[in-house]
Amino acid sequence: MSGTISFCPRHARRSFSEGGCGGSVRERGRRGLRLTSLSTKPVEKLTPSEAKAELDRLPREIAGHDRRYYREDAPTLLDFEYDELRKRNAEIEARFPGLVRPDSPSQRVGAKPSEKFGKVVHRVAMLSLDNAFADEDVVDFAARVRRFLA
Q1: With CB atoms counted within 10 Å of each terminal CB, which end of the chain scores lower, N or C?
Q2: pTM score, two decimals?
């Protein structure tokens, strides 16, 4: 039996294979991130028409990444890049609340999971760190865990 044992941080699992878990964006290249001049413009400098264009584009792009991640187990972005897309969408919506779309990522959670996953009942509630971008996010999470366990 040849191959390597590697740890895939994206999937938080070990895999034994010829080429890792197959979930590495670096191995397959970053096909999914589409940068445009508008997508790099700071949110506070967007005009209403530019914000509308971004809010037309972002839900489709994020939905595609959700499908590849949740349904196909084949992400094309690093987690940080995906989080940045969702964060940009949220920031634009906060600045232009009248432009929030029904298909916005802020109006739904994740995507339908793959049929390969079975249901699991946990004896103890699973708590999520969510997206921690700063030290205070981790401190807040630890405080929530302590309150839950108290």
Answers
A1: N
A2: 0.59
